[in-house]
Design brief:
Length: 843
């Protein structure tokens, strides 16, 4: 198989050799295809387009790709194998590559972030420009073509889908030539078959490589003569012709497979039982430890429990299946894999009741493998990730066993906890539809799946849908499950977030006070679920301006969640850590807020990854703290990066992206980029109204920021009109004695001064200062800003003595609170106006 212009079969492995299946030592022929493939890949000079191998099942596309990888491994610094039959598994594989490349991401980085980092490194050719990416069984053309990187390396695709033609360069793969079939059989069955017999057998099997492999393995294991094999094959073919096999199952493959299974049934019937169970997994590698002894809770009702309880017998079964070429065993990754065509044939041979029974057996093995792991614990994510390829193919949503439904709900929770909201949404919807049909609307698993569905909807920015669904669901749960049922309490805790998203902060406080009391009564005061309820209550107090109560609750929550053995997930720890930093910032302790925020953000990057939703929320809050602490350049850089990451991960129409955009506009203004900030705010303002509605506090907060930028861009009349409307709205929704409302009032007074309405500005300023002193105290930075601005108005109205007294008191307090050199202190010292903007908190 050597070709003059390259050196095949190098013994040198690349620096990174990832997930490539074991080489088939019986690989034969295909010299011309390998040569064409090599020359086709080398012909691309700058922007390499993917190359696809396509052909029907069983012709050896995957084996050809494996052989190519081994044959030319010396030409690459990186070779990475990606199972692509389920597009949802592609990015997790790329995320694994990112970690192998040692890219600057955390060990537990989110899938989206890690995958994009890997693709970016491949496109840039850093650290390796000589790379080969193999997408195996990539039948979804649009999805895979959009992901496959263009760069200095090579992309190889195997697929049964002929639609790749016209999209990329393709190389058709057909059955063996007769010469290759004979070579393969005489090599596979050494000393046991003549060339004439091999020719006759190849004719009967249609030169299909997978069928030849099955036949060869059977002859090696049973020493059956070619004559007897051909006789049995003819009998099976006659029978198979009458079963109306689907057209994409080659008849020769069906006959060869049937003979192998029959012989194995005679020799070791229990092995066939396990093989048939494997037919109901996905075609991706199955972790070997799924076939360990089942825990007692999953052994009941299991057909394989007794077999799996004997590890010696289980190992022998798997070896036998490998010898008959019915499964492929990869000892390096400790997985077994069964060809999708063999799976289909196995399933189709079974009567309907057997299919249901064996599918349920596969579900038990999956559920048992996940049972010891908490789905929102980052340490458990590799285990859940290894099972994902078998969730959809095995149809777990069709099983009404409570153990399997609990497992499926854990998978959904894992998916949205790790940031894969789209897969979580799809699986939740499938489960609800199926379980409703099977068990009715009021089945506990249906109610639980709807709770998860609402969480996903809220995370995807569908606030109204989440609220309305949870309101209906809470009524049903209270009626069906009871007030203090675990699921009811979980939903009660979640429903408080819906109220906050609607801007009903006072209602959220009352709701969460009741929620905390119920959690303490059912779970105890320090249970992880109680601490989540306490964290929510702290946020309610924060939104209503009671910073001391918020600080008390947030500090307690954070301390208890950080204890060893608390059971709190990394997300909950990060939420309370970031919440504590936010309380400190809103209390005016900017330096402490930066220190806490830095620690929280670093924790998020390490534990969850830089693009996990909670890490990005911590990044946004840290950017705000840095801006308040006069670190404008650092704030702007972090705000820019955070918004870019939000756009990439959840798109522009999402609450977190809107908040990150507002943070960026504020950072731009603080850095003097007022025109850019105004352009961004004019783009964001209608999106806030679309997201939250025309009468939401956050919408009015965004309007306040826009008015500020209109004024500093010499459009003061427009600013006055915008701030008057915002102040009226905030008065109506939150009352005047709320820090959001009073922030708007400070800015409106500045707007009025800018258009010459100094007396009205003074009156509004005096009222705002009085209210802030009562709400936040005389030393809070927002109170001091109101006082500093009032000084300017008093001077303008010739109330010099009153202005000087207020200025002296304000500067003394400013120096104590923020210290000399802070920009706010300098502006106040120069008797210029201060502006305060709005940043929506995480709800």
């Amino acid at each position: 198989m050597s070709v003059s212009h390259y050196s095949p079969d190098s013994t040198q492995f690349p620096t990174i050799w990832g997930r490539v299946p074991q080489r088939n030592m019986n690989f034969t022929g295909r010299s011309e295809l390998l040569r064409e493939l090599h020359e086709g890949l080398l012909s691309d000079v700058t922007a390499v387009v993917p190359h696809a191998l396509h052909g029907l099942g069983g012709v050896g596309k995957t084996q050809l790709a494996i052989e190519y990888a081994y044959l030319h491994r010396g030409e690459y610094d990186l070779v990475w194998w990606i199972p692509a039959d389920q597009p949802v598994l592609v990015k997790p594989s790329l995320a694994g590559l990112a970690r192998e490349l040692r890219l600057p991401i955390s060990a537990s980085a989110g899938v989206e972030e890690a995958a994009e980092a890997a693709l970016d490194a491949l496109r840039r050719g850093m650290p390796f420009s000589k790379w080969l990416l193999i997408f195996d069984n990539a039948d979804e053309v649009d999805e895979i073509n959009a992901i496959a990187p263009r760069g200095p390396g090579h992309v190889l695709i195997t697929s049964r889908n002929h639609s790749w033609q016209g999209v990329v360069d393709t190389l058709p793969v057909d059955v063996f030539t007769r010469k290759e079939s004979i070579q393969f059989l005489t090599r596979r069955v050494p000393h046991g078959i003549t060339e004439a017999e091999a020719d006759e057998l190849a004719e009967a099997l249609g030169d299909l490589p997978l069928a030849l492999e099955q036949a060869g393995a059977l002859q090696v294991e049973t020493t059956i003569s070619v004559k007897d094999y051909l006789r049995l094959l003819e009998e099976q073919t006659t029978r198979l012709l009458g079963t109306n096999k689907p057209a994409d199952y080659p008849l020769s493959m069906s006959a060869a497979w049937t003979l192998s299974v029959q012989q194995l049934t005679t020799r070791m019937p229990v092995a066939v039982e396990l093989l048939r169970c494997c037919a109901f997994f996905g075609p991706e590698p199955i972790p070997r430890d799924l076939f360990d002894r089942l825990p007692a809770e999953f052994a009941e009702g299991s057909r394989l429990a007794e077999t799996l309880a004997d590890p010696i017998l289980t190992s022998r079964i798997l070896r036998e299946l490998g010898r008959y070429a019915l499964v492929k065993i990869d000892s390096s990754s400790r997985t077994i894999q069964i060809h999708r065509l063999v799976q289909a044939l196995l399933r189709d041979e079974l009567p309907p009741d057997e299919r249901l029974s064996l599918r349920a057996e596969a579900h038990l093995l999956l559920a048992a493998a996940a049972a010891p792991y908490e789905p929102d614990d980052t340490a458990s994510w590799p285990r859940y990730s290894s099972l994902l390829g078998h969730i959809t193919p095995s149809q777990v949503d069709r099983n009404d066993d409570p153990r399997i439904r609990k497992f499926t709900l854990s998978i959904i929770r894992y998916l949205y906890s790790s940031g894969d909201f789209n897969f979580a949404q799809m699986l939740a919807e499938r489960c609800i539809t199926q379980w409703r049909a099977d068990s009715g609307d009021d089945d506990p698993s249906v109610l639980s799946a709807q709770r998860h569905q609402a969480i996903v909807a809220r995370e995807l920015g569908n606030i109204t849908r989440s609220f309305e669904q949870n309101q209906r669901l809470l009524v049903r749960m209270r009626e069906v499950l009871g007030e203090d049922h675990e699921e009811t309490l979980l939903l009660i805790n979640s429903a408080g977030a819906d109220l906050r998203f609607r801007g009903d902060f006072a209602a959220a406080l009352e709701h969460d006070l009741d929620s905390l009391r119920r959690h303490e009564a059912v779970f105890g005061p320090e249970h992880r679920r109680t601490l989540r309820a306490m964290n929510n209550l702290a946020l309610d107090y924060l939104l209503l301006g009671d910073y001391s109560k918020a600080l008390e609750l947030q500090s307690t929550t954070f301390r208890l969640q950080r204890r060893p053995g608390s059971g709190a997930s990394s997300m909950n720890v990060l939420s309370s850590w970031n919440g504590l930093a936010r309380v400190m910032r809103l209390s005016g302790k900017y330096r402490e807020a930066c220190d806490l925020g830095e620690d929280a953000y670093e924790y998020g990057v390490e534990q969850l990854g830089a693009e996990h939703p909670w890490t990005l929320r911590a990044a946004k809050d840290l950017a705000i703290a840095k801006r308040r602490d006069a670190k404008a350049d650092e704030s702007l850089r972090l705000a820019l990066r955070t918004r870019d990451q939000q756009l990439r991960t959840v798109g522009e129409h999402h609450p977190d992206t809107l908040a990150a955009g507002l943070c960026l506009a504020n950072a731009q203004r603080a850095s003097g980029e007022t025109a850019e900030a105004l352009a961004l705010l004019e783009e964001l303002t209608p999106r806030f109204e679309t997201m939250y509605g025309e009468d939401h506090p956050f919408k009015y907060g965004c309007d306040t920021n826009l008015a500020l930028l209109l004024r500093v861009n010499r459009r003061a009349e427009e600013a006055v009109a915008r701030d008057r409307e915002a102040l009226d709205g905030l008065d109506r929704r939150l009352t005047r004695d709320h820090h959001f409302t009073l922030t708007c009032a400070i800015n409106l007074a500045s707007d009025l001064a800018a258009i010459g309405e100094h007396e009205e500005a003074r009156q509004l300023g005096e009222d705002t200062l009085r209210r802030l002193r009562e709400l936040l105290g005389p030393d809070h930075p927002l109170t001091l800003a109101a006082a500093a601005n009032l000084v300017v108005d008093l001077v303008r109205l010739s109330a010099r003595d009153e202005a000087d007294a207020l200025h002296a008191d304000t500067m003394r307090r400013y120096l104590e609170v923020l210290g000399p050199g802070h920009p706010d202190v300098d502006v106040a010292e120069q008797r210029r106006r201060l502006d305060f903007d709005f940043d929506p908190p995480v709800l």
